[in-house]
Amino acid sequence: MKKLLILLQLVIMMVITTNVSAQETKKPFTGAVAKKKSYKALYVLNSAEEKHISGTLRNINNALEDPRLKGKLEVELIAFGDGVAVYRKDGKFLEQLNLLKSKGVILAQCENTVRERKIDKSDLFDFISYVPSGNGEIIIRSAEGWVIVHP
């Protein structure tokens, strides 16, 4: 009986040691590896909520600064509906937009929104671009393989 207990203890110790060794040799997860030469992301903004807009602009900057994507990422921000607030001159996003623009981000506004809401383009920043429709932009970019991001 005593020999059986000793044998059982040895087996338990071997199992514990094997499990600890296996856990120690596992590499910790560090995220996906960017294996492609380039990536394209379309960020969609259709909210006027300041917190949402600031978060979206911050998310874009964070993606551009991700060391895995640095120099490999093309980004467009499409604003439509209530998202037009991001491009209003009387808003508070000029500094963030200029930073993103300096990093090559395409800043696009839906012309349908401007027309339907009777917004004078002079009320919007002059450095933005216009597309016929925000939904059309999403559809086309998606078909071209762009990742669509809804922060």
UniProtKB/TrEMBL annotation:
Residues 1-22 form the signal peptide. InterPro entries: DsrEFH-like, Sulphur_relay_DsrE/F-like. Pfam families: DsrE (PF02635). Keywords: Signal. This is DsrE/DsrF-like family protein.
